[in-house]
Amino acid sequence: MRRISLDELKPGMVLGRSIFSGLNAILLAAGQTLDDRYITLLHKHGFGYIYVEENGFEDVNPQDVLSDVSRRIAEATVRDGFDQLRDVVRLESEAGKITREFLEEHADILNVPQIDEMSMAVSTIIRDIVNRSVGLVDVFAQVTGATYMYRHAVNVVSLSVLLARQFGYTNRQLRELGMAALLHEVGKITLGDEYLIPEHMIPDDEADFYREYPTYGFILMHNTNPALKAERLAILHHREWQDGGGWPQGLHGDNQPPTRIDSHEQGLIHRYAEIIAVASAYDNLVNGTGELPQRLQPADALALIMALSRKCFNQAVCQVFSRIVCLYPTGAMVQIQESSSFGFEGYYGVVKDQSHDPARPVLILYADPRGRRVRPKTLDFSHDPDLRLRIMS
Questions:
Q1: H helices of the chain, where?
Q2: Per-residue b/e over 236-249, b at no fewer than 16 CB within 10 Å?
Q3: What is the pTM of this model?
Q4: 45, 67, 147, 319: which has the highest count of C-beta atoms within 10 A?
């Protein structure tokens, strides 16, 4: 199968992977032949790309960072907890939003529901990543408007855990980080339903109020369990910048590897928050759910994050992240721009597998520089020092 954008869809194509519109709700099942009605439906739901079956690419089998079972469990837990909190907010406020003072005074009802279940979901994600020996950021679930809150949360946990493992975090640290990542945007729920949207849709005149959500999340976590100190600090700090230009407190970072977890005692950004910030930004950039409305290709998203390293994001975290992000997702169509293998410049291929180098995958060549189909041929470019690819979809 191969990955294509929705703009490339044509009637008669066969869906390669099932598409979920929500929790365990299959929008279209793998094997479905697409027609105009189904293509319109996919556009309506806001998907950026899908996988289709195609002769010659039967061996291309993209795998999510998480197993389907682990993802469904985690997403269901987050959605249920967030929905319960939304119900409480609606009951306690006619305007559908809660003030900071009200949050602090009503710890008994304004806290994070199902915190134990969420902790178990985080443990499931960590165990899944460790047991499956996942080391690279390749394919993970798309975020759409209807799934923004809970699917983004689960994606950020997965990316944060993958990153933190590169820094040698213990199981306890991974659990703390994972819980903070899962709930890093929980404060948005108390702002009101109109703020549970991608950031680029927030009106400029409401930006100051919107920027209260990390503080509200901090209070919710304190109400839930005051002992969760690292988790609530990470939630409070995840929008802070290394140069002090972030919010809500204008804290600074030191751009050092996030290994000393007690750095917050020195008035710096909490180390977990520095990891969550990069993971959240990347997921938003590739899904078009952050400050930029358009979806970026992985290579472009990573390039933007690297450009903002040291100023916005922890430089050490960005450097490690750049080594585990697959620039060309499995199933993506690419064109070879440069190669040390003579004669392959200009050829088109589909990414079959990832290698030890995220920038040098295994390709199935299928067309010459003029676009004429050739007999599919698998080539491993993992040791090609000159390889430069251009992603086509």
A1: 36-45, 68-92, 100-105, 115-131, 148-166, 171-182, 188-191, 207-210, 213-224, 229-237, 271-287, 298-307, 315-322
A2: bbbbbbbeeebbbe
A3: 0.95
A4: 147
